[in-house]
Design brief:
By secondary structure, this protein is of the alpha/beta class. Helix content is 30%, strand content 22%.
């Protein structure tokens, strides 16, 4: 089936969406489409690698077939939605973008162009952030429960008046020893079904829907492909490789520079500093001095993360990606509010995307 793909839409730059090994597997036959984000790098990068790629102008219809059109909707968080117009239905691919209510109402405007068409919505439905990654005194601290995700979905499909909803992009199974805990916090299709209040027909993950008859089928849970043994073997090998990694002086200097730029805000939020804990080292960043120091003092909070992941995030300018992994654990100290740590990740993410690196970048965003 993949050999017949003509178009591939890449929603944003996170590597679980913009995954070059998968793109290489898909090949050079498709045209790769991407949204026009403030800092657009996807299409130019793919073109430099020999692929055919095109950046879609926001809120502009593009014909990709005699009866199929697509519309790209960039969002403020450097993500995007894709609206697909077919002869019988609008297919709304929200992936994991989480539009706000106002953005959903704007989306509904485009859907109202032809009220006779069915609306099929697809969206993620489970945590992909640090909302459950906080620990204090050895106890789990969560700032967002499962019901919040279910309520969001009910609200989403109600605003856009969807006829069908397919939950997708959330069927992850966590196999690393340092992320297995997250399996207990996943929102499942059974959780959604119990809390489903919308008139929208709720389908199961891995569903197929016929856009002529709107008959639908799904893959039974027991038929999901999940062979644990080879996965655990790969994980074990990766963990061995990671255990020998330490941050280079260059990487540590780059991280220090990134943090120093925000030192005054960080000092107000976290006066005792921030500590990064890897397999082999601890690095204490003093928000007062604006640099890493040797200290055994308790910081305002600590980030426990593999050195390999931390180094990659700093090197490739995607520090915010550490906030969507389940192996990143936040150790709370004293009375530090976990929501302020979300602000910490947002600050560094905005800077990585160059939105706060200059006045021009901010206005462009």
């Amino acid at each position: 089936m993949l050999s017949t793909v003509q178009y591939c839409y890449i929603t944003h730059e996170h590597q679980d969406h913009y995954h070059l090994p998968s793109i290489r597997k898909l090949g050079k036959q498709p045209v790769y489409l991407s949204p026009q984000l403030p800092e657009e790098n996807i299409s130019p990068h793919l073109v430099s690698l020999g692929f055919t790629a095109k950046t879609l102008i926001p809120l502009t219809w593009y014909r990709i077939d005699e009866e199929v059109n697509v519309l790209s909707i960039p969002l403020y968080n450097d993500d995007s939605c894709l609206l697909i117009d077919t002869p019988t239905a609008y297919v709304v691919n929200l992936n994991d973008s989480k539009p706000t209510n106002s953005q959903l109402w704007n989306l509904r405007y485009y859907l109202s162009a032809n009220p006779s068409k069915k609306v099929v919505a697809l969206s993620s439905y489970s945590p992909a952030s640090i909302v459950n990654s906080f620990r204090k005194d050895g106890e789990y601290v969560s700032i967002k429960n499962k019901q919040a995700y279910i309520d969001y979905l009910n609200n989403l499909v109600t605003i856009i008046d969807a006829d069908y909803f397919i939950p997708f992009a959330s069927q992850a199974i966590f196999c690393r020893p340092d992320s297995k805990w997250a399996n207990g916090y996943k929102v499942t299709i059974d959780d959604i079904a119990k809390g489903w209040k919308a008139r929208t027909t709720l389908l199961r993950p891995y569903s197929t829907i016929d856009l002529d008859t709107f008959c639908h089928t799904s893959v039974p849970t027991e038929q999901y492909k999940c062979t644990v043994a080879p996965i655990e073997k790969k994980v074990a090998g990766q963990m061995i490789l990671e255990s020998a990694v330490s941050l280079s002086a260059m990487t540590l200097s780059a991280l220090e520079s990134k943090l120093r730029i925000h030192r005054f805000v960080l000092w107000l939020l976290f006066p005792k500093g921030v500590c990064f804990v890897t397999e082999q080292e601890q690095y204490h960043f003093s928000t007062i001095k604006g640099r890493f120091i040797k200290s055994n003092a308790n910081p305002s909070f600590a980030i426990r993360v593999p050195a390999q992941a931390l180094g990659d995030a700093v090197t490739f300018g995607h520090f915010g990606d550490l906030g969507i992994t389940m192996f990143t654990v936040i150790i709370l100290r004293g009375k530090t509010n976990p929501r302020l740590i979300c602000v910490f990740f947002i600050l560094l993410t905005l800077y990585d995307y160059r939105h706060t690196a200059s006045i021009k970048g901010f206005c462009k965003w």
